[in-house]
Design a protein that fits this description.
Blueprint (H helix, E strand, L loop, with lengths): L34 H6 L16 E6 L8 E6 L5 E6 L11 H5 L14 E2 L8 E2 L2 H19 L4 E5 L5 H14 L5 E3 L6 H11 L16 E5 L3 H4 L4 H9 L3 E5 L12 E3 L6 H14 L5 H7 E2 L1 H8 L4 H8 L3 H13 L3 E5 L1 H4 L4 H14 L9 E4 L18 E2 L3 E2 L3 H11 L13 H9 L5 E5 L3 H4 L3 H10 L2 E6 L11 E4 L8 E4 L4 E5 L12 H11 L11 H12 L11 H7 L2 E2 L26 E2 L18 E6 L15 H6 L5 E3 L10 E6 L2 E9 L7 E5 L28 E7 L44
Helix pairs in contact: 4-19, 4-20, 5-14, 8-11, 8-12, 8-14, 11-12, 16-18
């Protein structure tokens, strides 16, 4: 008889191991209310239960969607195929997943997957499936033709912030070394660049100052322009944890979102007035003697200039600009400044503006003036939208940056990267332009050819007519994707590439915590990784020796070296350490370094003088002026069931059923009934949506979620005005009016490859004309 190998395993004794188990000691200062009573009553976690399912493998990884980066297990069957998901007890999410995370696995083996290259020589032709050699040869021939005729800068590359960091590194290197073009940027330009610009100006580093866990320790949490409950649902656990310990909650948002409904103070300010509001809050803090002058004297510059500007924004003036009571401005100032520990977090709501950088700087000024920086429970953070919104801008695909956050205009930085890449400094192009500016250049025929990777500008960029004209004007366009997006459907070549579950790599979440994604299954036959495609194109362009990477691990090793010694130092981060620790916050300069989850603890920033460089902020009106024909504000945002351009989530049945279509959220004072057709008109055009009538929005504001294409596209109506520093579009405010209409515009089905139709099971509720019963969407039981 052989010994049972499970005999030493206490779980093998049955559902519950024999004998009592001592409760885990609790720190009463940290334990949530009621926890001790629960433990004392014998309610210990059920971690001694054990079950096996033959033939199933659980692959630990992270969600592909937002910047929270929840840990999950992908369930893999005997055949090596992903067939399900389970939440993972990672310390980011603690077994929680949102609706998107729960359904994310369904895209891996989805019927809509692209499995062969698509090609056509003109947009008048239909796509046909071709071999990889034919698609690659045609692409390389077009790149060479355009560049030999018009110059290297006539060809551009647009990347994405949902790519692994290894791939974003390759995007920047491929553009500058293989294409030899200055024109490279990425769709994080539509997301985080205002926060990045403000962080660099104030702190000399581009990342959140505190980890999520610090929220649990704060006494006052201010959330500005972030619909946390829908856009970052699992992050709400930190908000509730802080509230359970008595923290005050302040929410700044023109809509009464789910998170705003729970706040002690909800400031429903008029869109486009954030900097006027925060200047007035700072004015009150100064007038009431609530500033931390000792901290400012030791750790800040520019304070006197900032204080002088704040004096121009008394609550009475800003209340009129913002459309909120002056008393509420005073209340916010006192609540935040008097708290022993306070934190401010913000997202796209204050960043998607022509004054986005200034809005973020105004929040930083408030934190610095009150000394709420660099302490457990006190600090400043930016909530990243895309899964790798943080890591995606750190290593070179942004037009003005090189790996490690180096400036492409800095001679020493250029020399360092050229030495690593093995090229002459004269071969490295200068800075290019931003994503929206590249579209304008396409319209002017300055950029004649384009490769797009992991982006869908036909839905995600503002002013669709301009975007369509820009892409239609290009002589050649190739797109990488695993589904046929609206943008890819307009291309000449579409390369079928892997999902996140079919490759390995790292992402940096909103805390700047680098986490490891693991490969769960092999890609379908005919599908290649983005890394392979870029390296193969580089080889055919004559730069193969600079792209001799077998896969992500080799790329990451070069990325680590390229970032060493920079502010964005990844050198001490390895795949093995990430597997062991569950994530490491950069900077991490050596293998024995623990990482840096909290910045500025020693009172020093990353500027040479070690101080916060406070910046003067002056409010100015939005770029799209109001008049008698356009008296209202249109603002846009996400909904819990969908993600960005919707190319992934609009194909997943449960998410389509929950939120099948966009709507126009309007106040009851306009006389519409729920579900009635409402035409929203801006200077870019008009579209008709079902009305969602709610008192949870300002009477002068309309909200439309932006995950759908024309003719139901919010971004077809938004203005393509840009912040002069960050070049982010002004998505969150443009002038509009609303009118009664006869018929609601129908939501189009997602594009499909030749010979395929959009997966019908995901399209059942798409033509449903009813609005959701709440901004968060609805379940199928509510559709009758």
């Amino acid at each position: 008889m052989t010994a049972d190998p499970r005999a030493a395993d206490p779980r093998a004794a049955g559902p519950r191991a024999a004998g009592p188990r001592a409760a885990v000691p609790l720190d009463p200062s940290l334990a949530p209310p009621g926890t001790r009573a629960f433990r004392d009553a014998g309610g210990i976690p059920a971690d001694q239960w054990h079950a096996d399912q033959n033939g199933e493998t659980l692959v630990p990884t992270h969600c592909c969607f937002c910047g929270v980066q929840c840990g999950m297990y992908l369930r893999v069957d005997r055949a090596g195929k992903v067939f399900g998901v389970e939440p993972r007890n990672h310390d980011i999410n603690r077994m929680r997943l949102c609706p998107k995370g729960i359904n994310a696995y369904q895209q891996v083996n989805h019927p809509d997957r692209l499995t062969a290259p698509l090609m056509r020589r003109s947009r008048e032709e239909d796509f046909r499936e071709v071999s990889w050699d034919e698609a690659l040869d045609f692409t390389v021939a077009e790149i060479k033709r355009i560049q030999q005729t018009y110059g290297n800068d006539a060809f551009g590359l647009l990347g994405g912030a949902s790519l692994f960091s290894e791939k974003t590194y390759l995007v920047g290197k491929f553009a500058r070394v293989a294409l030899k073009s200055r024109h490279v940027d990425y769709n994080g330009r539509l997301c985080m660049v205002s926060a990045a610009g403000a962080n660099k100006l104030a702190f000399g580093i581009d990342r959140a100052g505190n980890p999520f866990s610090d929220i649990l320790l704060t006494d006052c949490l201010l959330i500005a322009g972030s619909n946390v409950g829908e856009c970052f649902p699992v992050m709400t656990q930190y908000v509730w944890g802080a509230r359970d310990r008595g923290a005050s909650l302040i929410v700044i948002d023109p809509r009464e979102t789910a998170i705003a409904r729970t706040a002690d103070i909800h400031v429903a300010l008029k869109p486009g007035t954030d900097s006027a509001f925060f200047n007035a809050v700072l004015n009150v803090v100064i007038e009431e003697g609530l500033t931390d002058e000792t901290y400012l004297a030791a750790h800040a510059t520019g304070w006197e200039e900032v204080k002088a500007k704040a004096a121009e924004y008394p609550p009475s003036r800003s209340a009129e600009i913002c459309g909120v009571p002056a008393e509420q401005i005073v209340q916010v100032a006192r609540t935040f400044a008097r708290a022993p520990k306070a934190m401010a977090w913000h997202a796209r709501g204050i960043e998607h503006h022509s004054q986005g950088v200034e809005n973020c700087l105004a929040v930083i000024n408030l934190c610095a003036a009150t000394g709420h920086i660099g302490k457990p429970g006190a600090g400043y953070g930016t909530i990243t939208g895309q899964g790798n919104g943080q890591g995606g801008r750190e290593h070179g695909q942004k037009s003005d940056l090189l790996p490690g956050g180096r400036s492409i205009a800095n001679e020493e930085h250029r020399r360092q990267i050229c030495e690593i890449w093995g090229i002459e400094e004269s071969e490295l192009p200068p800075a290019g332009t931003s994503m929206m500016e590249m579209v304008w250049q396409m319209r002017r025929r300055e950029i004649r050819g384009l490769i797009g990777i992991c982006n869908n500008p036909f839905v995600s960029l503002p002013n669709y007519k301009v975007v369509k004209e820009g892409y239609d004007t290009t002589e050649f366009h190739a797109q990488f994707d695993f589904f046929l997006s609206e943008t890819a459907a307009n291309a000449h070549v579409v390369f079928p590439v892997t999902t996140w579950a079919e490759d390995e790599g790292v992402m940096a979440n909103a805390e700047a915590r680098v986490v490891k994604h693991n490969k769960a299954q092999d890609p379908p036959p005919g599908v290649r990784t983005d890394t392979w495609v870029m390296c193969e194109l580089a080889r055919r362009l004559g730069a193969g020796d600079k792209f001799a990477f077998a896969g992500s691990r080799e790329v990451f090793d070069e990325l680590r070296i390229a970032s060493a010694g920079t502010v964005n130092d990844y050198y001490g981060i390895t795949y093995e350490r990430l597997e062991e620790t569950g994530g490491i916050a950069w900077p991490c300069p050596s293998i024995d370094h623990p990482g840096t989850p909290r910045l500025f603890e020693d009172g020093r920033t990353y500027h040479p003088d070690g101080k916060i460089h406070m910046q003067v902020v002056d409010w100015h009106p939005p770029m799209d002026p109001y008049d008698d024909e356009h008296p209202m504000s249109l603002t846009t945002g996400r909904t819990v069931a969908h993600f960005l351009s919707g190319n992934q989530t609009r194909r997943l049945g449960a998410l389509v059923e929950q939120t099948p279509r966009p709507w126009a959220e309007i106040h009851p004072s306009h006389g519409f009934r729920n579900g009635e057709p409402v035409r929203v008109v801006t200077r870019r055009g008009s579209e008709v949506f079902p009305a969602l009538v709610t008192e949870a929005i300002r009477p002068d504001t309309v909200f439309i979620p932006y995950h759908w294409p024309v003719p139901t596209s919010a971004n077809a109506l938004t203005i393509d005005a840009l912040d002069p520093r960050s070049k982010i579009p002004e998505y969150k405010v443009c002038a509009c009016r609303i009118e009664h209409a006869e018929k609601i515009d129908e939501v189009p089905a997602p594009p499909a490859a030749p010979g395929h139709v959009a997966y019908p099971e995901t399209q059942v509720s798409r033509t449903d004309p009813l609005p959701p019963t709440a901004p968060q969407g609805r379940g199928t039981s509510e559709r009758s």
